[in-house]
Structures
1.
Amino acid sequence: MPAVWSFMLAARARGLGTVWTTAQGPLERELAQVLGVPYDEVMLAAFIPLAFTIGTDFKPAPRVPREEVLHWDRW
């Protein structure tokens, strides 16, 4: 995972945007087959889309207050 983080930071330094995706989880076996990855030996941990951004004025995205999405000892 540190290598993925380093890749993402290096991309940002060059004006490229990335995002760490995990939505492929339910389809990991099918994706491994399409990509030719041996599913029983290798875990697909992250897919990182990479693209040029519009500008370089990066700032935090709007967030929902954590109290609305974080639950501790209750649901």
2.
Amino acid sequence: MDQKEMDQIREEIKCFQAKTSNDLEFFRIKFLGKKKGILTFLFKKLKEIPHENRKNIGKIINELKKNVQDKILHFQKINLIENKKTLKFDPTIPGKSLEIGSLHPISIVKNRILDIFKMIGFSYVEGPEIENDWHNFTALNIPVDHPSREMQDTFFLCKNPEILLRTHTSSVQIRYMKKHKPPFRVLSIGKVYRNETISSHSNFMFHQAEGFYIDKKVSFLDLKKIIQYLINSLFGKSVKIRFRPSYFPFTEPSAEVDIYRDDKTGWLEVMGCGMIDPQVLKNVHINSEIYSGFAFGMGIERLALLIYQIDDIRICFENDIRFLKQFQNDF
């Protein structure tokens, strides 16, 4: 490793000319390759040089390495300029950014409700949207001649009056209780179907969330605590909550839940709830002398309208991209 050898390497680096990218790659490997590179080899041999000479020789090798790197960078810039002349586009211009999609506000509220109830041990289940009369009505204490059936304008399928599109997610409650033994806490969310074009839904379909909890010594106080937890999680702790006595065939006692956010909107109904009727427990072979439970149900669209202050529910189903873009950063 004498001065003459160093001068030869320096001269070779200086005189190098690259005509192609392959030439440049060959040059890089020849001098800087990890296995057989000339300068790599010289760096490894430094430890064999006497200590008093090692510093000076190391400095020379580093200068040669910098010369190689500068040479490579120089020809890379030249190649880029030449490529620009032949290409039909400028590769240095930033590409078009991709638009970020967003979840629908109904999906956002649904996911929030799922997260809220997962935090307190509720499991999530789904059920069929095409149901039979027993699961949708009879098992829920709504016999054929019961006047409450008139509250839900039902879509029956084919000529068979036993088969229908479910009018509420309470049918999932019946299916689950038939197959499982208490205790359990369950949440179900899905589409339900009613002919309600003259109602606030303005649609034949909407989304409903239903939860139920069955165990020993479950009381109405437990139900109120769960409802309060849900409302506070969705609307904040400052919102006022009111329980109004109501009627549902499958719960007794039953209540409607209203919230009060400000003087402009006043009291607004958001959901229904109640203690599961002993007859419903009997229908699914659960001993009502040992177990008790509560159930609650709410419309996802109604909650979405309140949370995002949407004036017209119909816009949720119009697929207007201008409306949906508002929710890009809200999930």
3.
Amino acid sequence: MSTQHFFLSSPAAALPERLREAFADIVPLPADALLARLPTLPAAQSLVWLSNIDAQWQQALRQILQTQPAARVVLLSSVPEPAEGLRALDDGARGYTHAYGVPALLQEVALVIEHGGLWVGPDLLRRLVGSTNAALAAQQAVSKAQSPVAAAPGAGPNAWALLSAREVQVARAVSAGRSNKEVADKMFISERTVKAHLGAIFEKLGVRDRLQLVLRLAASPEPASAPTAEPKP
């Protein structure tokens, strides 16, 4: 059964037009009606979209998860900020993205979440990458000081080494927070080709979304031999 999309509507937050374009069957509901509806559907068959235009979005998110703990919720932000995204994810949201994203992007967000992944905006992703890299560097420094042998390289396969040259270029661009379209434009290839490369990358590295990909790559030093030249049109 296909996913049923809901939008939590309120006097302050009306259904965004781009969300309607992305999901023609989306159902806008006020809080009371939404909370009554969710328990009647398996969590895997529904996805709820909230808007940060509603100042009570955090309270609404908590109520939704209290009613249906396995509910999948995405927060739409008119002006995405890493701190807000972290609050949403910490409170249990599965995604955080721009409210004015194009329909194709919103559909991609939904697809990732439907497959069990998380979706975060590029700014938050870069912050998470930076924090992860700093934490890993500190951990490696401590491990090396305590046990130089244990800290030596080669304990496991380097993620970058598992990828083809083209996949390395795609992975690097995605890790920088670029969308599929931005990667396609940067590499002079189609979005369909980008998706195909990402699918192969996810399979090779055993990850299911962009955030896991970034964390996996951050744990592997990028080899000096990795291709860096930009492809020519």
4.
Amino acid sequence: MAKILIVDDEAAIADLIQLTLTQAGHECETAMSGNEAADKLEKERYDLVLLDVMLPQISGFELMEYLAPTGTPVIFLTAKGALADRVRGLRLGADDYIVKPFEPMELIARAEAVLRRSGRLGAVRVFGLEVDPAGRIVKRNGQQIALTPREFDLFLLLVRNRGLALYRDVIYERVWGDIAEDDTRTLDLHIQRLRKKLGLQKEIRTVYKIGYMLEAE
């Protein structure tokens, strides 16, 4: 789990980012202006900052110059087609950029890639389990639970979307990199094995005519 600051003056976008990353197990705070973000950064330590370029009072670029000496990883949020903004942000020291509008799964993947490279991606705790995305390990009471690579990918997808019903086709695309055909036994078998290995028979729920979901705690 990481502590993330979201700096965006569009409330709807900030709320979407916060919801997406919170469901993925991260702790998030928001700031609606450059001044508010600067105040928060003086008081708190963050593992990652998602920074919009166009902000009132202090721009994202000006805030980036303030942030750079702290060594805090930064991902810029830029408008579609704003190539000059992306280039300038990277030259100022940003670790990555995300173009609006974005897919929630892309946001999670990019954020966690930066957190992993910077060594700031901590474990997620759910139903008494400790899930380490960087080490690809699941533990209960300090004891590692043996999962195959595919089982880990499937469980991590459920953890990142807990409380949300995932369609079978989405699961196949995200975990197997392909679209499901008529045979869905592979997914069902992996779900059965996860339930047994992790002791989550009730928490990993079958959603009729849709797919599966991990209950929210």
